[in-house]
Structure of MTX1 protein:
Amino acid sequence: QLYRDARECLTLLSQRLGSQKFFFGDSPASLDAFVFSRLAPLLKAKLPNGKLQQHLKSLQNLCNYCTSILSLYFPWDGGEILGDPPTSTPRAAGADGGEAEEDPHKRRNQLLSVLVGLAAMLGYAFLSGIVSIQRGGSVGPGGRQPMALEEEEEEE
């Protein structure tokens, strides 16, 4: 029953789309985003029972609809989502046989991310009062002068 309902839904979507580029004319609407988010994975996913996927592939206008959205909004990987081979050249292998890094500044960006995170944590700690810096001549809580660790041990 579920497959039958899904097939009927796909057929109705295909009929509603017709030969239009999007469901409501030449520009996409929220319905287009919703429908695309369901159709694109259905075209790509490896399913235990491929009947629904085969039915979708038989509805050429829905397949063209997905391909059009992929090429328009996701040009860098549109073909790969639908199972086509990637159009880019394969990554170059390094001298040690491993793959070269895709982003030449990857290590720098990682280091900057860690430093920004550390600065944010320290800033929060200072601003929230978890950590504070006191000057040497200031009086501590309770009106007492801060002591060094050795002085505290001797006092006990």
Observations:
- Confidence is low (pLDDT under 50) at residues 85-100.
- The helical segments are 2-17, 30-44, 51-58, 60-73, 78-81, 106-128, 149-155.
- DSSP finds seven helices and no strands in the chain.
